[in-house]
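User: My instructor asked us to take a sequence, write out its structure as tokens, and then describe one feature of it. I'm not sure where to start. Here is the sequence I was given:
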Amino acid sequence: MPERIATGMEWRTAGRRGGDIVAYARALRVSGVAAACGALVLGCTGGGGGSASPPTTSSGTARSATADSRPSASASATSETDPGREPRTTAQAQSLIQQVISGPELFGTGVVRATPYESGPAQWAVLGDDCLWRLHPLPADALATLTRHFEVPASDVKGAVRLSATVTVHRTALDASWEQARMLEEDLDCTEQTQRPGERLTGLQSLSFARGEGGNTSGDDLLLETGQCVSDTRGGPYAYWWQQAVLGSVVAGTSVCGGRGRSQQELNSLVAEVLPRMLLRVQQEIGSTAGTESGGATASTSSTKSGS
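Assistant: Let's start with the prediction itself. The structure tokens for your sequence are:
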């Protein structure tokens, strides 16, 4: 899977205000999707051919990307984190990532490390104007990032499943919101993407929710994407889901690419609770006392599986 974290440096232009960034990060553009998978749960069900059908949970509602929906608050206004506890150095950011990022056990029984397992610490993948993912140096507004790759091995009757988890720590919550905004914009521009030669994502549809919308109670902002993954060697199309959330200066994401004979219920059971648990770890590491008392650290209770 690609390292689904792209640089927001191009957006850091003079004259942009915090409210503008949040407007991008929280704007919703639906490409043929009528409702959302709620509460950081990929509870989508679909038909044959491995393609994901429009999410159908009742907790989410479509939100129009219009000027009326743009909030004027700063990017960190709704954060449940304590800025005083957020990392200030690369070493602190790397330490936080190790506390937060998923290992195979978080996905459940049967999930193992893939090869390669971890990404290089000095690079992340950026989606170009040609909708091709390429590795770029880590930008100045990010302190550290790490992606881990996992798989459910193939069996006699079923193909392998690919999974990933990514955590990036930015210098500020505003920088993290920039990343989320940039990712949403890129996803809308590229409904088909090339991960690497011979591996593609097709039919991509994106949704975004602010805290309190669509069942999102765990992050400041949540971005969901569904589609299909296709490989020259693995075949396809298979169901593909990706989700990324911001909490303070931390951006966390997970993805899954199905395989031959893998049901959407089976895929959902692998990833439904991973991101909420990672966000709970963020909350435990850098959360504010007030946020915890008000229910900020409720990721584990908000991850009831839909349709699994």
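For the description part of your assignment, you could build on this observation: The chain is about 20% helix and 30% strand. Try explaining in your own words what that tells you about the chain.
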